[in-house]
């Protein structure tokens, strides 16, 4: 069903989703006018959709009249398998890594052509980083991203390179051929490293997380200060954590199969 919109071919669902995606990390509170502008829909349409979304709980209105994402949408997001299963399984291993390294620890998955950070743990001694839980960063300039890209289908790698490799620092790999060789190295040695390729002064090291069938379902990594990062020690700490997550995922799969067979 299409309605009044700057794009008459857009459905009501598409316009409602455009209202929700008008919010991001840089725009967490918006006026109705700003929502209409960012969603590219007429103000009257935005008013109607925002009112319905607010009544349902997907949006909430502050005292100054600005809107933010509502609690009910957050509650539904927690039901996603990547949160309710993968994150819960990985969290104890991430906490142990954090205690052992005193650095930032990430759990990430690939969503299309980006890294999505499922969870991030940090300590007072850890270096400042730009990542956040639920945030997205490039694949080619982060340790977890390189792991995920190295184990992605060839078509995904080609599409990613054809889109262009943005330079974030002077050390970012921006040549497709060089990135291809780097990804091959990641697959052969079993870990990825990004040294000051996303943020100057930071080094990230990551390893793949496999499921019971051997597929890479996530990446777990540590971000430390490049001047004191010992890549060998970080890999040595990361590998058993990734294996522990894999074993627990296998156990859960077996339990689910047992329940289904009864």
From TrEMBL:
<dbReference type="InterPro" id="IPR029016">
    <property type="entry name" value="GAF-like_dom_sf"/>
</dbReference>
<dbReference type="Pfam" id="PF01614">
    <property type="entry name" value="IclR_C"/>
</dbReference>
<dbReference type="GO" id="GO:0003700">
    <property type="term" value="F:DNA-binding transcription factor activity"/>
</dbReference>
<dbReference type="InterPro" id="IPR005471">
    <property type="entry name" value="Tscrpt_reg_IclR_N"/>
</dbReference>
<dbReference type="GO" id="GO:0003677">
    <property type="term" value="F:DNA binding"/>
</dbReference>
<keyword id="KW-0238">DNA-binding</keyword>
<feature type="domain" description="HTH iclR-type">
    <location>
        <begin position="10"/>
        <end position="71"/>
    </location>
</feature>
<protein>
    <submittedName>
        <fullName>Transcriptional regulator, IclR family</fullName>
    </submittedName>
</protein>
<dbReference type="InterPro" id="IPR036388">
    <property type="entry name" value="WH-like_DNA-bd_sf"/>
</dbReference>
<dbReference type="GO" id="GO:0045892">
    <property type="term" value="P:negative regulation of DNA-templated transcription"/>
</dbReference>
<dbReference type="InterPro" id="IPR050707">
    <property type="entry name" value="HTH_MetabolicPath_Reg"/>
</dbReference>
<dbReference type="InterPro" id="IPR036390">
    <property type="entry name" value="WH_DNA-bd_sf"/>
</dbReference>
<dbReference type="Pfam" id="PF09339">
    <property type="entry name" value="HTH_IclR"/>
</dbReference>
<keyword id="KW-0805">Transcription regulation</keyword>
<dbReference type="InterPro" id="IPR014757">
    <property type="entry name" value="Tscrpt_reg_IclR_C"/>
</dbReference>
<keyword id="KW-0804">Transcription</keyword>
<feature type="domain" description="IclR-ED">
    <location>
        <begin position="72"/>
        <end position="251"/>
    </location>
</feature>
């Amino acid at each position: 069903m299409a309605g009044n919109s700057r794009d008459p071919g857009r459905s009501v669902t598409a316009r409602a989703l455009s209202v929700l995606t008008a919010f991001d990390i840089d725009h967490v509170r918006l006026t109705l006018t700003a929502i209409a502008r960012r969603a590219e829909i007429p103000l009257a349409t935005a008013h109607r959709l925002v009112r319905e979304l607010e009544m349902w709980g997907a949006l909430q209105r502050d005292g100054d009249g600005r809107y933010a994402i509502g609690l009910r949408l957050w509650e539904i997001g927690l039901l996603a398998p990547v949160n309710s299963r993968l994150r819960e399984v990985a969290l104890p291993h991430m906490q142990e890594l954090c205690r052992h390294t005193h650095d930032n620890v990430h759990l990430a998955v690939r969503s299309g052509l980006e890294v999505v950070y499922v969870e991030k743990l940090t300590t007072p001694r850890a270096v400042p980083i730009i990542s956040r839980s639920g945030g997205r960063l490039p694949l080619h300039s982060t340790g977890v991203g390189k792991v995920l890209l190295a184990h992605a289908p060839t078509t995904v790698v080609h599409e990613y390179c054809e889109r262009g490799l943005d330079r974030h620092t002077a050390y970012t790999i921006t040549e497709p051929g060089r990135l291809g060789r780097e990804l091959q190295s990641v697959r052969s040695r079993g870990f990825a490293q990004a040294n000051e390729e996303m943020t100057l002064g930071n080094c990230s090291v990551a390893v793949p997380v496999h499921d019971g069938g051997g597929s890479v379902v996530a990446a777990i990594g540590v971000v430390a200060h490049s001047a004191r990062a010992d890549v060998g020690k970080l890999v040595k700490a990361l590998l058993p954590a990734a294996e522990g997550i894999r074993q627990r995922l296998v156990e859960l799969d077996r339990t689910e199969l047992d329940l289904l067979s009864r």
